[in-house]
Amino acid sequence: MSFTAWLSLLAICCLGAMSPGPSLAMVVRHTLTGGRGKGILCAWAHSIGIGLYALVTLLGLAVVLKQAPMVFNGIAIIGALYLAWMGVKALGSKGGISDKLDAGNGSDSASSTDLSAGHSRAATFAAARDGLAISLFNPKIMLFFLALFSQFVMAADSLFGQSLIVFTPLIIDGLWYTFIALILSHPSVLPKLRAKAAIIDKLSGVVLILLAIRVIVTI
User: Fold this and answer.
1) Chain-centroid distance, C-alpha 211
2) What is its subcellular localisation (predicted)?
3) Which of 138, 139, 168, 173 is CA-nearest to residue 155?
4) Of 17, 141, 31, nearest to 79 (Cα)?
């Protein structure tokens, strides 16, 4: 792969990562809910999904999906249902993110400590799960790789070039959403966002549901 081709790949990956959508909403929610660590975990779990799509494209499976509309539509529907489920959860949340952070912290008893530890483990799992799932089941990302990314496969004429095709989008995606998590978790920013946590929950819920509807309508 030539340096010029890689620069084109880099530019497309940057534009794709910075495009607002459900991935951004998910990183924002986990950053506000669990802090910087959970936001970064969600970011890199998301980037693993991006890397898997890049690998699928490299192996030529993207062409198979494009020629099998029933498989493609099935994945798109699963993604839409997942987006809708997350949207409903966000709309149904009570008290906003600040109350979630305070849950289980009302006493110093051993049971409270156990509940807090369990809550932390559940939040860690949820951040990784949602980050990976939102990338794997987001039809927008699938279309991105089918329509734009596959053109760079022909330029990968060596193992090094193939590695660039997989790791460039993975690293760019992870770095971008890590940057988002770092900015949002800054001491001067986080309290202001947490004060608007209930509104953020509702807005992210509406966005996710609208995206789900859009996916279903355009299949």
Assistant:
1) 14
2) Cell membrane
3) 168
4) 141
